[in-house]
Amino acid sequence: MLIASYKRPVSLVVLADILAFGLLFFYREPHDFYILGAGLLIITLIAGTYLFIVKKELGDEYLFLIVSMLASVGFIMIYRLNRGLGFKQIVWFSGGIVLFFLSYFIYIRIKIWNKLMYAYAFASFGLFLVTLVFGSNIKGSTNWIVIKGFSFQPSELIKILFIFTLACYLTHSEQIFLNALTLKLKQIKIKGRIALMAIVYMFMGFLVMQRDWGTALLFFIIYITMMYVFDADMKFLLLNVIIAALGGTAGYFALYHIRVRVVTWLNPWADIAGKGYQITQSLFAIGSGGFFGTGLGMGRPDYIPEVTTDFIFSAICEEMGIFGGVAVILLYFLLAYRGIKIVLKTGDTFKKAVALGITCMFGFQTFIIIGGVIKLIPLTGITLPFISYGGSSLTTSFIQLGILEAVSREGGQDEGSISDEGR
Amino acid sequence: MKGAFRMKEDRKVIHILIVMSVLFLSLVVYLTYFELFVKDRIITNSYNQRQWEAEEDTIRGRILDKNGIVLADSPKTEDGWKRTYPHGSLYSHVIGYNSRTYGKSMLEASYNDYLLGSERGIFDFGNRDESGMRYGDDVYLTLDHELQKLASQLLGDRNGAVVAMNPKTGEILALVSKPAFDPNEDKLSANWQAMVESEDAIFLPRATQGLYTPGSTYKTVISAGALENGMEDLVIEDKGTVTIDGKPFSNTGKKAYGKIDMKKALAVSSNVFFSQVGVELGENVLRSLADRFGLGKDIPFEIPVTKSRFPYDSMGKTDMASVAIGQGKLQVTPLHMAMITSCIANNGVMMKPYMVSRVVSHDGDEIKVTEPSVLYNVMSTQTAGAIKLMMREVVKSGTGKSAAIEGVNVAGKTGSAENELTAEGEAKNHAWFISFAPVENPKIAVAVILEYSGTTGGGSAAPIARELMKAYLKK
Amino acid sequence: MYEILSSIMKYIFITIIYLFIYGIIRLIYLDISSMGAKGKHGMKKGKNLPYIKLINRREDLGFKVEETYTLDGNMELGRSNKNDIVIKDPYVSGKHVRFTVHDGRTSMQDLNSTNGSFVNGERLGRDPVYLRDGDKIHIGQMDFLYVEN
Q1: Are A422 and C58 within 8 A, CB to CB?
Q2: C26 in a structural domain
Q3: Tens-place pLDDT, residues A44-69
Q4: Is the peptide bond before B179 cis (omega within 30 degrees of 0)?
Q5: If we measure between CA atoms, which residue out of A49, A47, A40, A2 comes closest to residue A21?
Q6: Is the domain of C2 the same as that of C61?
Q7: Minimal Cα–Cα distance from B20 to chain A, Å?
Q8: CB-CB: which of A330, A334, A414 is closest to C66?
Q9: CB contact at 8 A, B301 and B355
Q10: For chain C, how many structural domains are there in total?
Q11: C43: in domain
């Protein structure tokens, strides 16, 4: 008999899912048996994956545990909002777990990750170009590719490539240089750092062209963070920050869209029916839940636009209360904390960089989108990892998680030893 | 070597962890702050369709006067019910409106939860009609409909406000602002555009949010200061005008009264007397007086009230003189003047004003009852008593004679407030009158202001107060 | 009906999630403190004990092995689970080598292993050998550095 207790957190996830799916069964009229089936599948998947990770000592066991709770909150809320999307999300989740294991094992097997910097960069450029040429504009951003009814966001994939590109650079920066086109007289070696800057800003440029401000901001933050940790030159960092500040200010004045976002953030009430509609509806929802929420299915999160994607957190605050929202934030924080732990544990620079990149990606992305929907910062259209509806988002998040898990497997330093003491 | 390098990076990784912790903490803090302080303000916004959700299943509670006369009703229609205001514009600035398009205002907004019965909790199974619709709770006001009607009639076509209250309890008996509008939905939609664009500021509830210089009515406050600072026996030669720091301060018509004491000075409303008293009292006393009487402070009330203003950082002699005669940058709301009047009438104790006497569920359970409470202890009984006598003299022999009621001892003070049109001639001043009766045992205090109505206040505003008090005391 | 269920559930869900968070924090904390305990254990009696440190890259070896092994008293190393130090290296014998720490010195003795034990490149005979700080030890596929504290 499974006794659920805090001593075995996995049992709590299972319990929560059992109760939630049970409740959702009664939610729709006529009662939906498929949801019970889905619930069973989820519980088996989560429990199974967790036990597999623990028994086989694949690595850090908390990562998946935290994610399973987050994802559960996610598809429970999505199903409540939209039956079809709910089931799709559960499918994506299952696929995600498969990808999790795939990424894990593939990452471990292949040893040359840190040598493929140009491959990553070119692949990213390729994806960007494809998106530029063939991309569809969905809800204001041209960062989708639609094939036969399936839409996915290449920018999600590029996130991973970006982290790897940076990690490669940081591992052997001395060796990276570009041979410029040979002008009859001499070969110009551009210093690695400049090459990197060029790549990064070009990436950000592409994103800006696609109107994906959130991801552009995220890329910049990851870039600065990783450079700060691994490549200590303060002057260089300052230079980048200044460039970004200038770019941002220029963007504010030159680009109408950015100005709108900032103005709407400062006072959405001035245009409640128009530009401020999304954020004000979000605030109404958050304010209507109280501390414990209205109860699942009892609020009206359906008044919020984009509620299954960008504003899923507002729906959570309405129906699960401020306590629910805070719990979600705490869970993301624990995820980031575990990630940092893994970064500290790892000795190998490349792995450290990859782990840091992934951890920061999760952490800052979460902060940016939650901050946006509660109006702490301007709104951007990025997703809440593991919770927002979206195949691209969920799958790439699991790939990142798988890689992180792989890095956590054998750290450069064993936790139980005193290896570096006494030096 | 490798170990040392690793340590340097690790330290910075810790920095990143700290940054992320701060960021996440800020999210939690902001969410909590939002829930505790911001959300109440915004969820009553009309764009929040949840408000209307609750309305769908609930028959909105009624609003009634102290005697049970219905002021806002929800009579049944074919598809539910419709909010109706049987008395049209009479209560538009008190009760407000409840419209899907235009939102909620005044009491309809601030007592929304009671009117929807949400204060009763989800486990309440009564208060339903045959079809299962819930009843919201009924809100009983302290207002007296007869008085409110009379006050509005007396104001007539003129713009201004009338506030009547019980000085001992703080209950508001009448609260009228003009111009007003008809808050019934059909009238609202028909006239909205015109009203919004009108130059008359139809939507401004003058009684609670209109700011005016108090004019000579403020001399009552100054008297308190004078009496507390040993000037009770002060006598001044009033030659009709006096110059302070190069600026002339004159009585109306520059009339000279010769040697006068404070009682006479208040009765005739001598600017010469009081301007000099102001200078004598000095900046600190004037500032502290204003503070004690509540200027610059929030006034707790069931609908929004604009704070009265004493916006002086530092004061020169002419500022002090101006303040002492109620001009300059001083600004008060009619409600606040009624409260000050009540304070004097109530032996120096200012009661908290309130309009809602109780909330009762459809089945008759009392959900909420308001008890009178003290807002400020402003001055001693002796000081108040002395001012009472002086204000009695105003009506007996001074500028307030037209407020006299046969067989009743009435006290009062006239006021003439300068405004932006004063330059064109004193006939454009606002006319104030504050009063209470009977002096020996005050039952009602009234503040009246008529915009752009003339100099004395005695001529135009006082009779309104008189009729109102007369009608009330007859009951 | 559903409303009542949902209203009750919301309190239960919140409780479960926070218990979950508490549970995870608790486990993490336990992990950290048991690490600290292991570390202290290695430093018992206030003395700094000698240890051998793996030189190879762990990921190059196909089996699980620690970065360091603290040496204290009598410790036997081999593939069998009966050893004090168990390493599942196919080139390591069931009982391969014994370390003895006594009077501040460490000796190492080959226990008749199939592939032998090497110190600084020289294969050990039957007799135990004293180790010096910095000696390189080769056992099975692994290279260790001996560190005397």
Answers
A1: no
A2: yes
A3: 999 999 999 988 888 888 999 999 99
A4: yes
A5: A40
A6: no
A7: 7
A8: A414
A9: yes
A10: 2
A11: no
Assess whether pLDDT exceeds 60 at residue A178: no
The answer to the question of residue C46 being in a domain is no
Say if residue C72 is in the same domain as residue C28: no
Could you tell me if C60 and C34 lie in one domain?
no
Residue of chain A minimizing CA distance to B122 = A294
* Partner-chain contact A12 C68, CB within 8 Å: no
Whether residues C14 and C63 share a domain: the answer is: no
Check whether residue C20 and residue C75 sit in a common domain.
no
> Residue C6: which of A15, A69, A298 has the nearest Cβ?
A298
Q: pTM of the predicted model, to two decimals?
A: 0.64
Q: For residue A237, what are the contacts with CB-CB under 8 A and spacing of at least 6?
A: A224, A227, A228
What is the complex's ipTM, to 2 decimals?
0.90
What's the token pair of residue B340? 């000050």
Domain residues of chain A, as ranges?
9-418
Contact C67 A417 (CB under 8 A): yes
Report whether C38 contacts C64 (CB < 8 A).
no
CA distance B203 to B212: 17
Domain of C138 in residue numbering reads as: 51-147
Residues C34 and C55 in one domain: no
Q: Within a domain: residue C74?
A: yes
Domain with residue C101: its CATH number is: 2.60.200.20
Q: Are A295 and C9 a contacting pair at CB < 8 A? A: yes
The whole-angstrom separation of Cα B68 and Cα C139 is: 100
Return the pLDDT at A410: 61
Q: Are residues C97 and C62 in the same domain?
A: yes
Question: Residue A298's CB: how many other CB atoms inside 10 A?
Answer: 16
Tokens 């915009």: give the residue. B451
Q: How confident is the model at residue A198 (pLDDT cuts 50, 70, 90)?
A: confident
Does C91 lie in the same domain as C21? no
Query: For residue C96, what is the DSSP state?
Result: -
pLDDT tens per residue across span B139-186? 999 999 999 999 999 999 899 999 999 999 999 999 999 999 999 988
**Model confidence pLDDT, tens digit, residues B18-30:** 999 999 999 999 9
For range A325-341, the mean pLDDT? 95
Instruction: Please identify which residue in the block is written with the tokens 């003339």.
Output: B454
Bridge partners (DSSP) of residue B178 are B160
Q: Is A269 helix (H, G, I), strand (E, B) or coil?
A: helix
A334 touches chain C (CB under 8 A): yes
The distance of C134 to chain A (nearest Cα, Å) reads 13
**CA-to-CA distance for B424 and A50, rounded, in angstroms?**
86
DSSP symbol at A301: G
Q: Which residues pair with B309 in a beta bridge?
A: B331
Please state, in angstroms and rounded to a whole number, the distance separating the CA atoms of residues B225 and A375.
49
